[in-house]
């Protein structure tokens, strides 16, 4: 492996990807991840370091793009971790109103990748809000390690309430048409599923990426159409699908599921080698078309 060239997904040992998944989900810390990867195989440390996010790669839409207007907004969040929330609100050019899409981050706060996804949504004509669940703890700290720790230390029930209140704030926003969709990644994908149950008829469409299934007891309350994206190699999340699907079928939920061959958990995130360009592009195109259909 040439240390002067970027490490690609094909060059990374599958066992190092599995360690990275443990690290991403907070089951081991950064030091243990790097040490175990180094001990695992020749070049393991370089493989591990290559998997750490490089957010300069994630920007596809500049925050100065003339097609959008982006700003940070504060709003009340009764029952949340502090009673206040902050989010990244991106509106398309024009007067509106616009169909609205909530963009929910992973388990580490509002990082630059998620902000870019909000800008991508706005370029497609949606009023996008990406809430920062870490705002009550001082906000996204600028790196994922500290972000993951901060998010893990929050009251998780109140964190979900902060996301619920963010959805309601967005739906009622003066620039919103009142039609609301939600998408999210990893923790945000699971939160998209749970919000579908909590919001009921207030949510028109949900597009979770590799997210934990909604609790079975809440599935009958889902009124939104769901477009569910899974990575093929994501055993923990995919194991939840049969029971989730059975519950949706029993409740008459409108849903469609896509499993992307050869992909890993996190395949949409273009800041690490887990990114799969073809699958990410296809999944995003499907998501945009889905929202345009259900939020029109």
CATH homologous superfamily of the largest domain, by name? Answer: Alpha/Beta hydrolase fold, catalytic domain
**Strand line-up in the sheet with most strands:** 1-2-4-3-5-6-7-8
CATH architecture of the largest domain: 3-Layer(aba) Sandwich
Distance between the termini: 50 Å
> Which descriptor suits the 3D outline?
globular
Structural class: alpha/beta
**SSE string, helices as H and strands as E:** HHHEEEHEHHEHEEHHEH
Number of domains: 2
Largest sheet: 8 strands, mixed
Q: Quick summary of this structure?
A:
The chain has 296 residues and is an alpha/beta fold. The protein is 39% helix and 22% strand.
Topology of helices and strands:
Layout (H helix, E strand, L loop, with lengths): L13 H11 L5 H11 L3 H8 L16 E9 L7 E9 L5 E7 L7 H12 L3 E5 L12 H10 L2 H17 L3 E10 L1 H13 L5 E5 L15 E9 L1 H4 L2 H11 L3 E10 L12 H18 L2
Parallel strand pairs: 3-4, 3-5, 5-6, 6-7, 7-8
Antiparallel strand pairs: 1-2, 2-4
Helix pairs in contact: 1-2, 2-3
Describe it:
With 296 residues, the protein is an alpha/beta fold. The chain has 2 domains: 9-52; 60-294, Alpha/Beta hydrolase fold, catalytic domain (Rossmann fold, 3-Layer(aba) Sandwich), CATH 3.40.50. It contains 10 helices and 8 strands. The protein has helices at residues 14-24, 30-40, 44-51, 112-123, 144-153, 156-172, 187-199, 235-238, 241-251, 277-294; strands at 68-76, 84-92, 98-104, 127-131, 176-185, 205-209, 225-233, 255-264. It has an 8-stranded mixed sheet, with helices on both faces. Helix 1 (14-24) runs antiparallel to helix 2 and helix 2 packs antiparallel against helix 3. It starts with 13 loop residues before the first helix and ends with a helix. Mean pLDDT is 91; it is low at 1-8.
